[in-house]
Design brief:
Radius of gyration: 17 Å
Strand order of the largest sheet: 3-2-1-4-5-7-6
Number of domains: 1
Structural class: alpha/beta
CATH topology: Rossmann fold
Order of helices and strands: HHHHEHEEEHEHEE
């Protein structure tokens, strides 16, 4: 898709978010609101999505060991001038280690510790946590990439509320497609924005794009 088309899509999704808000839609109750049927597409997973499962991925899966979708966002995140960065779902730690060179502290949160993150700078602190139950460290900005869609619709409100409470600034890259693997909440950018508005009225869709130039792999960035 061309840049103009992506900008138009972001504007359309923002209008869609406003419609969802007016109709009272809730991610944890997909039958709420007039537009609900077109929004939430919950899916079943046959994986045991436990801490042990994610630890195995961190230890053995090449994608988890090598990829970090938040690294390309460092310049945009630093433009917000944060002092303390909280990374939600830090994965292999590549983002936390790189951005640590430009901020005072980084608090990296994940269920499992990647072997690639065992060696980290002195100003990077790892927190093993279940985000549905455990607190999130305080910071200037809470950020994530390809994390929030891994939570179920029933857990998502709690997790996003914690992110917003943790830090005044937010920056989240969200995969809005079914990966056939472990995305438990699959919905378009407008629905994600409508949900963020419940806890962060200043949230906006920063951009929408197609990952790998694939129109079936839409991602959005929600920030404030």
């Amino acid at each position: 898709m061309r840049l103009a088309e992506l900008k138009a899509l972001a504007a359309s999704e923002t209008r869609f978010a406003a419609l969802l808000r007016r109709t009272g839609w809730r991610v944890e109750n997909p039958l709420s609101g007039l537009a609900a049927a077109a929004v939430l597409r919950p899916r079943l997973t046959y994986k045991n999505l436990s801490a042990a499962y994610y630890q195995q991925l961190h230890d053995e899966d090449a994608g988890y060991l090598e990829n970090n979708w938040l690294v390309p966002e460092i310049e945009a995140i630093l433009s917000k001038k944060p002092d303390v960065v909280v990374e939600i779902g830090c994965g292999n730690g590549a983002f936390s280690k790189e951005i640590a060179q430009s901020v005072c502290e980084v608090h990296a949160v994940d269920w499992a510790l990647s072997p690639n993150f065992a060696d980290r700078p002195d100003n990077v602190f790892f927190h093993s946590a279940d985000l549905t139950k455990d607190p999130i460290p305080k910071g200037s900005i809470a950020c994530s990439s390809d994390v929030l869609e891994h939570f179920s619709p029933s857990d998502l409100p709690r997790v996003i509320a914690k992110c917003v409470t943790s830090s005044p600034l937010q920056y989240h890259v969200i995969a809005c497609y079914d990966d056939g693997h472990s995305h438990l909440t699959v919905m378009p950018p407008g629905a994600w924005l409508a949900h963020f508005w419940r806890y962060c009225p200043s949230a906006r869709i920063e951009r929408v794009e197609c990952r790998r130039s694939n129109p079936d792999q839409v991602i959005c960035v929600i920030s404030n």
